[in-house]
Write a structure and sequence with these properties.
The protein is mainly alpha-helical and about 280 residues long. Helices cover about 50% and strands about 10% of the residues.
Amino acid sequence: MVLFPNELAVPAVLMAHHDIAELETALGYRFRDPALLAQALTHSSQAREMESQAPAEARQPVSDNEQLEFLGDAILSLVASEELFRRFPDFREGELSKLRALVVSEKHLAQVARDLQLGEHLRLGRGEEKSGGRAKAALLADAVEAVLAAVYLDGGFEEARGLVRRAVLGPELDNVERQGGSLPVLDFKSALQERTQGLGLPQPIYVLVKETGPEHRKTFTVEARVAQRDTAAKLASQAEGATKKSAEQQAARQLLESLGPEKETANGSGRGGPK
């Protein structure tokens, strides 16, 4: 068992016993110290709210999951690097880095959290609850990392490694192996830039078309544009996203798909595209 000193108070209200058992079943791990799991699921909004509600004379800091998230991020990176090194000995460093970026990405970790139903167990402040915090990708991804750290502190590195392999890496890496080791596209903007460069086209530009929705839950519409050779016409695609970055990525993906599959030249380089 790994000991990790923590002078902050653990959350005053721990999870109900049946909730702990349900989540432990999903994780495949039983905690010796349930307070670690409670802390891993306590968002800072809930911790600050609990502090403010305590009588001034008895007020003390309440632990949240931010420090655990920091530790879990390091554990995840190490285990992912080790597992990729072991499972894909023929991959170059750049390929391993791209694949690691996929399995530790916010998008992937948020999906892992949904599979484990972590969102249902998060302890959020009232404001975060009202703004849909249980469905926010960033909060879900942070919770996964915090839970990994909690498992490490409670049961040691091998238990944490096992959880990473089962819940985070296994399904995604199995899929890569089934596809013969081919890497999925992770960054559509970079892929589109490489593709247009290969076609002799100008670099893509991204234009914010509009913003809709309330300030705390905006939707951004972005258009990706690529000028055609020797003509005033352009290739363009619009997409929506919860952030400008995600909208740009989706617009780039759609435009990349509209260019069609790359065609191979005699030297093996892709030079396909619209005529």
